[in-house]
Write a structure and sequence with these properties.
The chain is α+β, with helices and mostly antiparallel strands and 487 residues long. Helix content is 45%, strand content 18%. It has helices spanning 2-12, 16-34, 130-158, 163-190, 195-202, 220-229, 240-243, 247-258, 264-277, 282-295, 305-315, 318-321, 329-342, 384-399, 415-425, 442-445, 473-483, and strands spanning 40-47, 52-60, 63-73, 76-81, 88-93, 100-105, 110-116, 125-127, 355-358, 363-365, 373-379, 404-410, 431-434, 453-457, 463-466. The strands form two sheets. It has an eight-stranded mixed β-sheet with strand order 6-5-2-3-4-1-7-8. Helix 3 (130-158) runs antiparallel to helix 4.
């Protein structure tokens, strides 16, 4: 190609000056025509790697997905793409799952990785990628660090009764920990712009502080508050690269499930705080919202469904969520429908009245129960859990006689089964009702996904507890009756 262009211009040129000018032009044109390198060009050379197909997997939170596959021949493989791969952490999996290793991809996606299956990390050599060079130097450093730390901890345990020995070992441990702290500080100072450094520092937890009470003892409550408030200091919630690593997902799980009181109002408060911080990064925002929604789809504590309702109301809106479900809009409809089903019977809302027929064929209302607390117990005679829990519920009500009563609603349509169940479990003292024709619309007023469904209402008919087993209700009764001055 270069020879053809040169010959063409020489044939058309009469003077040496024109030739000189055209040669200069050729020097500009030819490199541009010759440059065909793809934005992504990664070479893998792995001693001991079998022929076959290597695979690259991406990371999204804690999930992995297949990005691409390509052949491996004679211990070599070449991965090429015409568009940059999204920045994040990736895995190269050798053919037949004979091994794997990690790599970071950011703006520079042209480099070489060489290693040996006998010691992938220890023998890893990188050419052309500062991020991956730092990454593997760090893995090697951390392996050495943890090996030394484990050895010192083992010695401390072994010589726990030897005071002088433990002082020496503790000093060695403190020095080792300080060296690691200095190592991280050096990364932050000298390699701050690199993706690796952002990734590494984001994964670090804040240092514990030791606030004191007036008497000099540790203020553990304030310590937790300080730790929680500084938890995200080194982690950007507006950098979508971090979503494509495990960092955000792992920190989010710890933050939501361990650092926040497990009550609906607390979770909502702190979840909103970090979600709002992420809004300028659509991918980060989407990830946080969906992770929290998925986590609370199945309640992990009493009243947790309020979290899902809040998240759906605030963020599963047309403005935010419609693009997320463009390929499956019915899923968004399903989520909103589920949330609307939950809404009427959240803890803290006023439970709606039910009027159903009792064993005598007479209508009886939930609101008619006169005890300070009332239990709505929805069951099916064929339900094994209902059969198991009903005796416990009966014993519970006997213990709290005069203060608690049960509105036992059979959700089965077979009258004979219902009456046989009452007789078998001796629940005649309950307010036993049935609604085979769904006249009361109980299924719209009280959301439960399986039987038995249990709701506790106070004197104002506010739902104060739900989704608990009978053996968990004693504490609820203690708390609620104390509020009423009846304990």
């Amino acid at each position: 190609m270069q020879g053809t262009i040169f010959a063409y211009f020489c044939a058309e040129t009469k003077s040496a000056m024109n030739i000189k000018r055209l040669l200069c032009l050729i020097l500009l044109i030819v490199p541009a025509l010759a440059f065909t390198a793809s934005p992504v060009s990664i070479d893998f050379e792995v001693k001991g790697m079998p022929d076959g197909y290597g695979k690259i997997f991406g990371v999204l939170g804690t999930a992995n997905y297949l990005l691409d596959s390509f052949p491996t021949v004679k211990e070599k493989a070449h991965y090429e793409k015409k568009e940059l791969v999204k920045s994040g952490l990736y895995y190269f999996v050798l053919p037949a799952n004979t091994g794997f290793f990690q790599l970071l991809l950011d703006k520079d996606q042209q480099f070489v990785m060489k290693t040996d299956t006998s010691d992938i990390v220890g023998k890893m050599r990188i050419t052309g990628s500062d991020d991956n060079q730092l990454f593997y130097e760090n893995i090697q450093y951390e392996n050495t660090f943890h090996s030394r730390l484990d050895s010192i901890d083992a010695e401390l345990k072994k010589f726990a009764s030897d005071h002088s020995k433990t002082i020496f070992l503790q000093a060695a441990k403190d020095k080792l920990l300080k060296n690691r702290k200095d190592y991280l500080a050096d990364l932050a100072k000298n390699h701050a712009p690199s993706f690796f450094t952002q990734f590494k520092l984001a994964g670090q937890n804040p240092e514990l502080q030791y606030p004191k009470n007036p008497d000099g003892s540790l203020d553990s409550v304030q310590q937790m508050i300080l730790y929680r408030d500084s938890y995200w200091n080194n982690t950007s919630l507006t950098d979508e690269k971090l979503v494509r690593t495990p960092v955000i997902a792992n920190k989010l799980k710890t933050y939501i499930t361990q650092l926040i009181p497990q009550t609906a109002d607390s979770v909502i408060k702190y979840a909103d705080r970090i979600i709002e911080q992420s809004k300028s990064c659509p991918e980060c925002f989407k990830f946080l919202v969906n992770w929290i929604a998925i986590h609370y789809q199945k309640p992990t504590f009493m009243g947790a469904d309020k979290v899902l309702v809040h998240i759906a109301d605030q963020y599963f809106t047309d403005e935010y969520a419609t693009p997320w479900f463009k390929d499956n809009p019915y899923e968004l409809v399903r989520i909103r429908t589920k949330v609307n089903d939950m809404r009427p019977s959240l803890v803290g809302t006023i439970g709606q009245n039910l009027t159903c027929k009792n064993l005598n064929g007479e209508y009886e209302s939930l609101y008619d129960l006169k005890t300070p607390l009332k239990i709505l117990f929805m069951f099916s005679p064929d339900c094994s859990h209902c059969q198991e829990e009903t005796p416990h519920l009966k014993a519970l009500v006997d213990r709290w006689k005069g203060k608690v009563d049960v509105y036992a609603l059979c959700v089965d349509k077979e009258d004979l089964k219902w009456k046989a169940f009452v007789s078998k479990y001796h629940t005649e003292a309950f307010h036993n009702v049935s609604d085979p024709n769904l006249e009361s619309k109980y299924y719209k007023k009280y959301h439960f996904e399986s039987t038995p469904g249990i709701f506790v209402l106070d004197p104002s008919n506010k739902i104060v507890a739900k989704d608990l087993y009978p053996n968990q209700l004693d504490q609820v009764f203690e708390t609620e009756l104390t509020k009423l001055g009846m304990r």
